[in-house]
Amino acid sequence: MFRYAKFSDYPGEFSHPIETKHYQERFLKDFLPKHCRRRSRVLEVGANINVNVLSRLRAKEKWIADPYAGIAGAAETELPDLGPGYIISRCVVGENSDALPSGFFDLIFSSSVLEHIGQEAAGFNCGHTVDPPEGQEAPRRAFCAECFRLLKPGGVTVHTIDHAVRNVSYDANFRGAGFVPLVEGETINVRRMMDDPEALRQSVTWKRPPEPMTPEQMRLHSVLLVGYRKPGTR
Questions:
Q1: What average pLDDT does the structure give for the chain?
Q2: Is the pLDDT of residue 45 over 80?
Q3: Distance between CA 161 and CA 77 in Å, rounded?
Q4: Kind of pairing, strands 2-4 and 223-229?
Q5: Total Cβ atoms within 10 A of residue 55
Q6: Following DSSP, what letter does each residue of 66-93 receive, concatenated?
Q7: Residue 80 reports pLDDT greater than 70
Q8: Rg of the chain over CA atoms, in angstroms?
Q9: Exposure string over 152-189, b if 16+ CB within 10 A, otherwise e
Q10: Can you give the pLDDT at residue 158?
């Protein structure tokens, strides 16, 4: 699976434009249970304090990988009190996550996290480029390789990613780490995605206070829905 989100995925449920996180949460709540069993070990990357999706999964163990170091004043810096049933690893997957066990998880997922990997090295540029800088791609490759290490054979990783136009290179990152797509599909055409009136777009920038986006800015802010499987059998 490697596609962009559309309003037609949930006809009449979301208005245009939208705060994309509402769609992402809805999608993950619908999609992840198909790949999660009662005996599954699940890891959410970058949960912060929002575990709305993770809390609804029926799983043997629910893990969170998050440094809780704060990002531009937006993320928590203290460990949240989530109650029993959660295991928190205060780490960044692909940087200092060596303590997480290899071949352990059945499912790894995230929402609105992966676009931040390598973002600073790219100058916080959301525009498409066919030649992304190595400073951006190196940590993304490391993240995908670490997901591959952490998953059991047959394990699944699913992510929703903002700023899709910039982040189409993730397909090569995941495939390069050894993953295969959950569902095969055509390669995303960036211009078609930008011009598609059905493509989901977020309504505000990340700035505080939020500022209205121009039509051209909105064209850059679609959402990717990506899913891959580690070859083998669980």
A1: 90
A2: yes
A3: 23
A4: antiparallel
A5: 14
A6: -----STT-S-SS-----TTEEEE-S-T
A7: yes
A8: 17
A9: beebbbbbbbbbbbbbbbbbebbeebebeebeeeeebe
A10: 98
Judging by DSSP bridges, how do beta strands 180-181 and 223-229 pair with one another? antiparallel
Cα of 74 vs its chain's centroid, Å? 18
Q: d(Cα 4, Cα 100) in Å, to the nearest integer?
A: 30
Measured at the CA of 140, the angle between CA 223 and CA 4, to 5 degrees, comes to 15
Round to whole Å and give the CA distance between 65 and 100: 9
Q: Which H or E element spans position 27?
A: helix 20-31
Q: Does position 29 have pLDDT exceeding 90, yes or no?
A: yes
Q: Which residue has the higher pLDDT, 66 or 16?
A: 66
Instruction: Count, in order, helices (H) and strands (E) of the chain.
Output: 5, 8
Q: What is the mean pLDDT of residues 63-81?
A: 74
Report if pTM > 0.85.
yes
Choice among 26-35, 67-76, 111-120 with the minimum mean pLDDT: 67-76
Q: The tokens of 12 are what?
A: 């009449």
Asked if 222 contacts 154 with a C-beta cutoff of 8 angstroms, the reply is no
Is residue 170 within 8 Å of 1, Cβ to Cβ?
A: no
Q: Is the peptide bond before 209 cis (omega within 30 degrees of 0)?
A: yes
